[in-house]
């Protein structure tokens, strides 16, 4: 019985430790994600020479962090954003789903354009091939005629051409 009791208490301890470790891992992971997002916002603002604003709230709605860190800059960006019309806001506001949908639509358009261009190219190659085959046949006919009717003189050649073949 003693070993049974100790094993069940060990399982409870392991479960509690496991839950604590998962919670720590989640918190650490969230902190890393937040740090990465803020870093990317900084990079975008520098590379694109645009003002970027990131506001991070927790589940309870408390302000956790912002980029830029200066609250006056954040308020200034928000005031300018709020003064925009609804149409202008839609242009400047994109969520992840909209971004990917737009990307998929653009890729489908590009694929259709590529398919159309491929079809046109294939058609042109087919026309070129047909033209080349016609020219090759004409050359073969000329070579055959030259072999059948060697040129001794132009009058013999013209006479031979006018006579029917037997």
UniProtKB/TrEMBL annotation:
Q: Which UniProt keywords apply?
A: DNA-binding, Nucleus, Transcription, Transcription regulation
SUPFAM superfamilies for this protein:
SRF-like (SSF55455)
Q: Which GO terms describe its cellular component?
A: nucleus
Subcellular localization, per the record?
Answer: Nucleus
Q: Which Pfam families match?
A: SRF-TF (PF00319)
Q: Which domain of life is it from?
A: Eukaryota
**Which PROSITE patterns does UniProt cross-reference here?**
MADS_BOX_2
Q: Which residues form the MADS-box domain?
A: 10-70
Example GO molecular function: protein dimerization activity
Q: Which InterPro entries match?
A: TF_MADSbox, TF_MADSbox_sf
Protein name (Swiss-Prot/TrEMBL): MADS-box domain-containing protein
């Amino acid at each position: 019985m003693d070993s049974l009791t100790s094993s069940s208490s060990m399982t409870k301890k392991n479960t509690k430790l496991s839950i604590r470790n998962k919670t720590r891992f989640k918190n650490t992971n969230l902190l890393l994600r937040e740090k990465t997002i803020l870093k990317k916002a900084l990079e975008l603002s520098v590379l694109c020479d645009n003002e970027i604003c990131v506001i991070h709230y927790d589940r309870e709605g408390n302000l956790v962090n912002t980029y830029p860190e200066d609250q006056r800059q954040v308020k200034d960006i928000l005031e300018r954003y709020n003064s925009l019309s609804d149409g202008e806001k839609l242009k400047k506001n994109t969520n992840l789903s909209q971004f990917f949908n737009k990307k998929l639509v653009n890729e489908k358009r590009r694929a259709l354009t590529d398919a159309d261009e491929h079809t046109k190219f294939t058609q042109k190659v087919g026309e070129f091939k047909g033209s080349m085959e016609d020219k090759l046949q004409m050359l073969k006919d000329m070579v055959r005629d030259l072999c059948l009717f060697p040129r001794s003189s132009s009058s013999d050649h013209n006479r031979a051409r006018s006579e029917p073949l037997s």
